[in-house]
Design goal:
By secondary structure, this protein is α/β, with parallel strands linked by helices. α1 runs antiparallel to α2 and α3 runs parallel beside α5. The strands form 3 sheets. The chain has a 5-stranded parallel sheet with strand order 6-5-1-9-10, covered by helices on one side. A 3-stranded antiparallel sheet has the order 2-4-3, with helices on one face. β5, α4 and β6 form a beta-alpha-beta unit. Helices cover about 25% and strands about 15% of the residues. It contains 5 helices and 10 strands, in the order ααββββαβαβββββα. It is globular and about 45 Å long.
């Protein structure tokens, strides 16, 4: 196991044959997406060209469907070894094949009467933060953890993460659920809660459902929450393979200071939710 995998979310271990198969399928998806993106851009251009002269128009708007599509996909830069994260879901074994003894139960205490009716489960690594074990040129904060071995961790907060958590805490019970180890997860949750309690609960690797190949699944059934009122936001879709209807995928983040994905998710997650304040 790599040093990073020992404390943070481990990368799935798949065979070279599986990897090559996923890459071939990912390549087809990439080519299709690039074509769709070019088609969308042409549609946007035609929409704008069809408008009256700017002096006569009050606004230069784009249809909502095109605007939303632009927000979530047009800035994707594909690398040569791009692997579509959704295809990894096929490598997760069927739910029925997992031994009953492996399932986790009662991971969370009963919800308090003051808590919001809905629950938002949040991944950590590459969703809310990105961490390094080797000191990078830029980071927001550093800390040490000890798990039999001492680690120096250099953390970067994803843009808008505190604004996102502050906004969502009014509508959801916030639960961090990571495949990272407990000491690592708890330090980061404490940082989020330093000024105001935003994160209600923190779940870690021991609370995940291990299905082999370094795959840790976040089985929402073990939370003892109403799944009809539960959403999970994660950059690795395979982690919610057993709760696809509850999943909200987000692009992985490392160091892009112009990233706005969390900000864009705020109105989507607010929709049809009533504030408790």
């Amino acid at each position: 196991m790599e040093k990073r995998d020992s404390i943070m979310t481990p990368a799935p271990r798949i065979s070279e044959a599986q990897r090559q198969s996923i890459r071939r399928r990912s390549s087809a998806i990439r080519e299709s997406d690039v074509h769709r993106r070019e088609t969308t851009q042409d549609a946007v251009a035609l929409e704008r060209l069809s408008k009256p002269h700017p002096d006569a128009a009050e606004t230069d708007t784009v249809p909502l469907s095109l605007e939303t599509d632009s927000v979530f996909t047009n800035d994707t830069d594909y690398e040569d070894d791009f692997i579509d994260p959704f295809l990894l879901m096929k490598e997760v074994p069927p739910y029925s094949s997992v031994p009953k003894s492996c399932f986790k139960h009662h991971l969370l205490p009963p919800k308090s009467s003051e808590a919001p009716s809905h629950t938002l489960v949040l991944d950590l690594d590459e969703t809310l933060v990105h961490c390094y074990l080797d000191k990078p040129s830029h980071y927001d904060i550093s800390f040490q953890i000890n798990d039999g071995e001492e680690y120096n961790v250099y953390l970067c907060f994803r843009p808008y993460v505190f604004y996102f958590l502050e906004s969502m805490s009014k509508y959801y019970e916030l639960v961090v659920f990571t495949a990272g180890i407990k000491p690592y997860a708890e330090v980061i949750c404490n940082l989020f809660n330093s000024d105001k309690k935003l994160i209600h609960h923190c779940l870690c690797r021991d609370d995940c459902l291990f299905v082999g190949n370094s795959m840790y699944i976040k089985d929402l059934k073990g939370l003892d929450r109403d799944l009809a009122k539960t959403v999970i936001l994660d950059n690795s879709p395979y982690t919610f393979a057993y709760n696809v209807d509850n999943g909200a995928p987000i692009d992985s983040w490392c160091d892009d200071k112009n990233d706005k994905k969390l900000y864009y998710y705020i109105p989507l997650l607010k929709r049809d939710r009533k504030s408790v304040v």
